[in-house]
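Hmm, what's this shape?
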Amino acid sequence: MEKYNPAHKQVLDDMFSGHPFLRPGKMFGFPAYYVGKKLCICLYEQGVGIKLPAAAVASLLANDPNVTPFQPYGKARMREWVQINLSHSEDYRKYLSVFDEAVQHILTLRGE
């Protein structure tokens, strides 16, 4: 039994196909997307984890009911990470600007 939603993966694969900075990979056995060697986006259980600047994390947590802290395996909240939990996989397309912000954040951390 898969520990992530394969329909979410199909939508993200479609969204990120041909992206100049994102490449597919794995994170603890879960599908993930990297910018260079840095993890940027990952599928986890029924949601999608995303690394963002601290201000964006705070804003999303305060204003978006679909967003929760990212706490894989029940551990402490991961700094600069949130998890978006949507029932309908196609709804992740509405978060394209958030995914773009995540990529830009990683590029900034890498000094690009």
Summary: The CA atoms of residues 64 and 84 lie 9 Å apart. The helical segments are 6-16, 54-63, 96-109. The chain has a mean pLDDT of 94. Strands lie at 22-27, 30-35, 38-44, 47-51, 67-69, 81-85.
